Target: EF-hand domain-containing protein
Amino acid sequence: MGSRFSIPLDIQEIDALSRETELTVPQLNSFYRRFNRLSRGEPMLTKDDLLREQDLITNPLCDRILHAFFANGRSALTFAEFARQLAVFRRSKRPSSREAKLRFLFSMLDVGGSGFVSAAEMTAFLMLLLGDSVSDEQLGSISLRCLSEADDDGDNRVTFEEFAKALGTVEIEEQMCVAALNG
Model:
């Protein structure tokens, strides 16, 4: 019965992963083929493996995306972890989807893994986004404004809770979606 799947998980694991991620079995099979291609058939996917993905390496936020994918000191991902990470970018009505997207985005800013976004981390992130389109002075001003608007307790750093509150009205569920995951 499990032979109809190319994923090396039993049918109960596939069903559980499908329910957890809201990805269909055909989507999981497609992701497994991509995982297998990128990992060259190995059971774990590394950062170097992901750097074979052309769309990723041309993204100015590539390093931050990789940092978020491999948070908590992980050096490699299993297929199930890979699927869970990709599922963050699926359109969903679940409240947990918004939180997952916010946590992914927060981890892109909190490169030190401290649980806070510092002024330096905010500036570095904005520099990646804005590039040479603003002066260093403008960049510093934008960074300080972003930080001060989100920093509720005045400690010059932003917690996840403050970050989530600051983005309270932003339609992040729509902004952080990949079309291929919503078909």
Q: What stands out?
A: The first helix runs from residue 11 to 21. Residues 1-5 have pLDDT under 50 and may be disordered. The first strand starts at residue 45 and ends at 46. The chain has two domains: 1-87, 92-176.
